[in-house]
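Lab notebook page, bench 4
Experiment: in silico fold of construct C2
Operator: M.H.
Input chain length: 176 residues
Purpose: comparison with the prior construct
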Amino acid sequence: MELSGAKVDALVGEKKLDEAVGVLTRLAEENPAQKAPWVRLARIHFDAENYGGAIVAADEALQRDSTDRTAKGLRAVSGLRVATESLAELRDDVNLKGSARADAVSLAKVLRETLGEEVLVPPMSEEARREQEALEAKEARAKARRKVRRAPVVSSPAPRQASVPVVNGDPFSVLK
């Protein structure tokens, strides 16, 4: 497990997060009672701003150890980030009226007070924004390449002419 942990560290350092997630997933499957791979997965997902993945991985860790503070914290903060993003979307929805809007505003206020923060989701840094744009561009190029690659069209060979013995220029002479 230590060797895999070092490999994960190296992959994360090289920003090969998909490979690191794959190694940790395999490690979690090989050691189903261990919480460590799940906590590490939750951290990687959280750092990549994949809060849904962080919540799922933290839940898996908490199923193995319900007292793990790191998993609890990652799950709680990820949940708050998802809720905050949803609230921001609701706030921008001019058609939202009535009790749903009031509930959203109330929840946002409670979240800010609980966390002691005026801004619940900090804006992306310039570097993080550039990395996100580069990743999206890379994914778009990969998707475009997948669309272009098609299986080669295999044409069937032309049908062969049956060789019919011709006697004195009469092809029906064989039938006589």
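Observations: DSSP finds seven helices and no strands in the chain. The helical segments are 2-13, 17-30, 36-47, 51-64, 69-92, 99-115, 126-148.
Next step: discuss at group meeting.
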